[in-house]
Design brief:
The complex is a heterodimer of chains A (331) and B (747). Helices cover 32% and strands 20% of the residues of chain A. Chain A is α+β, with helices and mostly antiparallel strands and 331 residues long. Among the domains of chain A are: 49 residues, 2-Layer Sandwich (Uridine Diphospho-n-acetylenolpyruvylglucosamine Reductase, domain 2), CATH 3.30.43; 107 residues, CO dehydrogenase flavoprotein, C-terminal domain (Enolase-like, domain 1). The model of chain A has no long low-confidence stretch (mean pLDDT 97). Chain B has 19 helices and 27 strands. In chain B, strand 20 and strand 21 form a beta hairpin. Chain B has a domain of 149 residues: Aldehyde Oxidoreductase, domain 4 (2-Layer Sandwich), CATH 3.30.365.10. The N terminus of chain B is likely disordered. Classes of the chains: A alpha+beta (331), B alpha+beta (747).
């Protein structure tokens, strides 16, 4: 690890001023990803600003029913919050299927959004990686690509976004609140993460001098009946091969509302708009679920190791929607 | 014969072990409390004044010559003491000139490579430099700054592509590369029913919880090393030879080793380079390998491809058994993994042909990994037996029992003990095998397809030689000394139990010293030999001591009293008895004892055996595979400590489950780089993957072994992957012949 300066910010204004005035700075919250990356020599900031003292730890309901979650709320606390569990079970479940209890106790909401890919070529300094060393190439293409993306990839990068939480947030149309010395911005989560294109090292819409201060969850009544399914190579403690966040409302056999997002298959948390459009108003049948899933995955471009993800994603979507539908019918 | 239920955790036993009743009791591990409270010190945790910290630099090409190595930037990092490369590292004796007869040479070093004494690169990951610094942080910072230029050579790194370059392996004294009985190909062609199949297994990595680490300290020409080794004596003799000092001046400590599984038998680069660096900087050096370094520089299991063919009569008698196996070595060392071992010894086929083929590759030398040979071989053979059973419409257990041999199928030796039938029968009853509908894909629980599978477990017995000293003191306590290894299996606990009963004193009065090459020399801990090997000498030394005490008791008129009474009456503070000694004469004696034992053991076919049973669930939508139940029923002779034995067997089943479900070395076929260089990319099973594991044993002592002991450290891993694959077939109708059984293969 390269030596670095460590500062602890007493308040948000100081944190923002410091990052505005300096080069090569990283904010440190839970440290569950950044510290690993620094140890591996992937990240090597000159300065680390500890933000864990900032007052960004609240979970509150706004007058319009929006839930505002402070950026420093830990993953564990968010998953355990009664409001979240009843209104957005998909979010609680997604968080609890990620990492381990120890990591979730440290990891924060803001940090989770900024975690970086676990592509093994990104982690290996002897390998070419356009994310780690722009212009060096991509050894994942033609290499071990089981964990890689089939959607949203480019010839420069096929790395998946690893977050489970973000998949649920994309499904919920969450809004990311970011702040800098210039003021506050609200970024829809769908625009927060970027597909790699020819700049895979630029992963989010966050500017270099900005800090995530909160996420806002709008009211989504259908989300009260939602689920998250994570399929992976171990029963626990592994990143998703495929994950599905879904909410479903059905009346008289027809789908009146559907929200669907995918993880593990794409370079960013993937909202399945194509599938949603096909499903809305359609009959809630396995055939329609399968047709919609196939349409969503139609643009997929697999590598030799991850072709199966196209099939697996469709199967998982169908299984999740079928189960949501069955539960709704039963209740 | 008795049966005990050993599911879950056993109640601990307090200190009130009755005199004479220690053997067979589930005594708590002696080091358990110290380990869970963090009181024990592992190799990297030994501190010395003036200690420096080292970090390895690894090659990033698979084959080539180092043309330039620039250490300027690394050396400029504050706190760096030295950067050693092949240009400036101390020259030590090359491995190749090492006396193979005396010290097994490259097999001890794991490689023929002279670390830091050559500009040649033989695998991606080979250590090519070491940074020594005042702090581990400085060493860690500086190591990536060493700049290396290579003249790369074409490299053979793709195992699948190298198959045609495999050549027949010669084998060695204990293992022939080829066995032949009758004409197996002809019998196969003529068989009423047959299968002819291809199975593959990937490379595997040990991933012991404690990464390899060495602290090396020179004092003149005396070298002390604290090393994560399962072979302190070989390590000491090897280092002495390489550094040109008498063996008596090298002392190796390994009191606690955090798991090894074969990865710590050979002397890997960290050990040699730590001693080299300590010599160069004139200060103690600590070299603790990172997990990535362990993955790239300390061996691993070979991948394998296998043709297996079985021919049988309509009523299930094997007429032909063929296994052709291809495994690899490295271009700078590696071992012939005896993957055909189960095929040679399990079934009484009329005609047999087994062949081992080797392909040298420009990859890290492969090495022993728990149940080398049998772990792979049992997957291949026991999966094929299940396939044949289905071809025959026969119960897989019935097929196996129909082919139980009267004598060893290879060589015809008598079995010292063979309770394979009992293991299957008892296991089947306990597991509820009869409840299984043999039709594939016939059992279901909601979205989960349910299947049951079984397989034979098998691991041969090896016994080596140990020197032991036992001392009885006038306070009634005893001390057992032997340089054996405690890698977490309860070795010291078990030997204390044996010594207590042999001396007729209380268990808690026995102290055991181990893990130090200054002690009477013990065996390496591998091949499941250690318990029986050490017990042989402990029993002999205790018998000798008891004779001495009895004589003393007669002289002092204390016969019938506790043993120490004789010492007190004779005013002797202690009395000792030894088996073997460190003298030249003693060493000769040890060799002759080894040969005698070896020849005696060779009269028999001896093995640990068992029957593995499992129930799996496969998700009909996603192919996810979960193991829901496990039973291992073993024939492992007498069990000295049911608690540690059950733990060993369970741990081995867990490792087998990892092999079945998820473990595989990812070596990039484009460049030979190990990409699964950490627990983030090499998937060992997690708790959620492991069901309750029921293990039990038949408790029948092997009459040819001391106290009837058969080593059981490895047998639990054998047959596991086959049992899982067979259960998967039962659940889904799909045969998965390539490990690991990942969900994409089940879609």
């Amino acid at each position: 690890m390269k030596p670095f300066s460590y500062l602890s910010a007493p308040d948000t204004a100081t944190a923002l001023r410091t990052i505005a005035d300096s080069e090569d700075v990283k904010f440190l919250a839970g440290g569950t990803n950044l510290v690993d990356l620094m140890r591996e020599g992937i990240e090597h900031p000159a300065t680390v600003i500890d933000i864990t003292r900032l007052p960004l730890t609240g979970i509150e309901e706004l007058p319009d029913g929006t839930i505002r979650v402070g950026a420093l709320v830990t993953n564990s606390r968010l998953a355990a919050d009664p409001l979240i569990r009843t209104r957005y079970p998909v979010l609680a479940k997604a968080i609890l299927l990620g990492a381990s209890a120890q990591l979730r106790n440290m990891a924060t909401v803001g940090g989770n959004l900024l975690q970086r890919t676990r592509c093994m070529y990104f982690y290996d300094e002897a390998s070419a990686c356009n994310k780690r060393a722009p212009g060096s190439g991509c050894d994942a293409i033609g290499g071990f690509s089981r964990g890689s993306a089939v959607l949203g990839a480019s010839e420069h990068c096929i790395a998946t976004h690893p977050s489970d939480m973000a998949v649920a947030l994309v499904m919920l149309d969450a809004v990311v609140e970011v702040e800098s010395v210039h003021g506050i911005r609200h970024v829809p989560i769908a625009e927060f993460h970027r597909v790699p294109g020819d700049t895979p090292h630029i992963e989010t819409a966050l500017a270099a001098d900005e800090l995530i201060t909160a996420i806002e969850l709008p009211p989504v009544p259908a989300a009260a009946h939602s689920s998250y399914r994570k399929v992976r190579d171990r029963a626990s403690y592994a990143f998703a091969l495929v994950s599905v966040a879904a909410a479903l409302a059905v009346e008289d056999g027809r789908i009146t509302e559907v929200r669907l997002a995918l993880g593990g298959v794409a370079t960013k948390p993937w909202r399945a708009h194509i599938a949603e459009e096909l499903l809305l108003g359609a009959e809630a049948t396995d055939e329609n679920f399968a047709r919609a899933a196939a349409a969503e995955l139609a643009p997929a471009l697999p590598q030799s190791d991850n072709t199966f993800k196209i099939d697996l994603a469709q199967r998982t979507v169908v299984a999740v929607l079928r189960k949501l539908n069955a539960e709704r019918s039963a209740s | 014969m008795t049966t005990h239920t050993r599911t879950g955790s056993e109640p601990g036993v307090d200190a009130s072990v009755p005199v004479g009743g220690a053997v067979g009791r589930p005594v708590d591990r002696r080091d358990g409390n110290a380990k869970v409270t963090g009181a024990v010190r592992f190799s990297a945790e030994h501190h010395y004044p003036n200690l420096t910290y080292a970090m390895l630099v690894h090659a990033t090409v698979a084959r080539g010559t180092i043309t330039r190595i620039d250490t300027t930037a690394a050396a400029a990092v504050p706190g760096v003491v030295a950067v050693l490369t092949h240009l400036n590292a101390p020259r030590i004796r090359p491995v190749r000139n090492h006396n193979i007869v005396r010290d097994l040479g490259p097999s001890v070093s794991g490689t023929s490579l002279d670390y830091l004494n050559t500009d040649q690169v033989f695998w991606d990951g080979q250590p090519i430099a070491v940074v020594v610094a005042e702090t581990s942080a400085a060493a860690n910072e500086a190591a990536p700054l060493v700049e290396v230029t290579y003249d790369p050579l074409p490299a053979r790194v793709d195992f699948a592509a190298e198959q045609t370059n495999a050549t027949p392996a010669k084998g060695d004294l204990t293992f022939a590369g080829r066995t032949k009985k009758g004409d197996a190909e002809k019998a196969l062609a003529a068989a009423e029913v047959s299968v002819d199949l291809r199975y593959t297994t990937p490379g595997l990595q040990h991933n012991a919880i404690e990464p390899h680490a060495t602290v090396a300290v020179w004092d003149g020409d005396h070298l002390t090393v604290h090393d994560t080794t399962q072979s302190i004596n070989q390590t000491g003799r090897y280092l002495a030879w390489r550094f040109g000092v008498p063996a008596s001046r090298v002392r190796v400590h390994a009191e606690f080793v955090g798991g090894a599984f074969g990865a710590k038998f050979a002397v890997w680069p960290g050990t040699v380079i730590a001693a080299m660096a300590a010599k160069a900087v004139g200060r103690p050096v600590r070299l603790a390998l990172s997990r990535r370094a362990v993955s790239r520089a300390t061996g691993g299991r070979t991948a394998s491809t296998n043709r297996i063919a079985l021919g049988a009569t309509r009523d299930g008698r094997l007429t032909s058994l063929i296994q052709d196996s291809v495994t690899r070595t490295g271009s700078a060392g590696g071992l012939l993994e005896a993957t055909t071992s189960p095929a040679r010894h399990l079934y009484g086929a009329q005609n047999m042909l087994t062949r081992q083929n080797l392909v040298p590759m420009d990859l890290m030398p492969n090495t022993w990994l728990r149940a080398p040979g049998e772990a792979i071989g049992s997957f291949v053979l026991e999966s094929a037996m299940d396939e044949l059973a289905y071809e025959l419409s026969m119960d897989p257990i019935a097929l196996r029992l129909r082919n139980e041999p009267a004598t060893d199928p290879t060589g015809g030796k008598k079995f010292s003990q063979r309770m394979q039938r009992e293991a299957f029968e008892r296991g089947a009853e306990r597991f509820g095998w009869a409840d299984r509908n043999p039709e594939p894909r016939s059992m279901r629980d909601g979205e989960w397809l349910v299947g049951m599978g079984t397989a034979t477990a098998y691991h041969p017995v090896v016994r080596l030689v140990a020197d032991v000293k036992v001392r009885l003191s006038d306070d009634g306590s005893a001390l057992v000394q032997c340089g054996f290894h405690e890698m977490g299996m309860g070795a010291a606990t078990v030997q204390a139990q044996i010594a207590a009963d042999a001396l007729g004193i209380a268990y808690e009065k026995v102290r055991v010293e181990y893990g130090d090459s200054a002690l009477p020399s013990g065996p390496m801990a591998g091949n499941s030999n250690q318990t029986a090997t050490v017990a042989t000498s402990v029993l002999a030394a205790c018998a000798e001591l008891t004779r001495k005490v009895s004589a003393l008791a007669r002289r002092t008129g204390t016969t019938g009293q506790e043993p120490a009474a004789a010492l007190r009456a004779a005013r002797r503070p202690f009395i000792e008895a030894s088996v073997g000694s460190a003298t030249r004469f003693g060493a000769l004696g040890s060799q002759s004892r080894f040969l005698t034992t070896f020849l005696k053991d060779q009269r028999w076919s001896k093995a640990a055996r068992g029957a593995q049973f499992c129930e799996v669930r496969v998700n009909a939508d996603t192919g996810e595979l979960r193991i829901s139940r496990w039973l291992g029923m073993f024939d492992v002779g007498r069990v000295i400590n049911p608690k540690t034995a059950a733990s060993q067997l369970r741990g081995a089943v867990v490792m087998g489950i990892g092999m079945a479900l998820s473990e595989q070395s990812l070596i990039d076929p484009r460049n030979g780089r190990t990409m699964s260089a950490g627990l983030d990319s090499y998937y060992v099973p997690v708790h959620a993957d492991i069901p309750p594991i029921d293990v039990d044993w038949l408790d029948e002592p092997d009459k040819t072994m001391p106290l009837g002991i058969i080593g059981l450290g490895e047998v639990g891993m054998t047959g596991v992957a086959a049992a899982v694959a067979n259960a998967v077939h039962h659940a889904t109708g799909k045969r998965i012949r390539d490990l690991p059984i990942t969900l994409d293969k089940l879609l």
